[in-house]
Automatic annotation (TrEMBL):
GO terms for molecular function: alpha-amylase activity. This is Glucohydrolase. It comes from Candidatus Blautia faecigallinarum. One of its GO terms (biological process) is oligosaccharide catabolic process. Residues 13-66 form the Glycosyl hydrolase family 13 catalytic domain. SUPFAM superfamilies: (Trans)glycosidases. Gene3D superfamilies: Glycosidases (3.20.20.80).
Length: 66
């Protein structure tokens, strides 16, 4: 099998709603994620995978956009 670019990378999945709250409303948000990118880089993270952030009926863990 041909080696792919991601085979030797560290990936980190983020659930935005609970990752980091930047404005104090108790819900994680994109500015909160952006504020922690340097920290993730220091940990050795190469790839950030964001879990779904769109409103959804949650029939498929948020991947089912309605």
């Amino acid at each position: 099998m041909k080696k792919q670019w991601w085979h030797d990378k560290v990936a980190y999945q983020i659930y935005p709603k609970s990752f980091y709250d930047s404005n104090g409303d108790g819900i994680g948000d994109l500015p909160g994620i952006l504020s922690k990118l340097d920290y993730l880089k220091d940990l050795g993270v190469d790839i950030v995978w964001l879990s779904p952030i769109y409103k959804s009926p949650l029939a498929d863990e948020g991947y089912d956009i309605a």
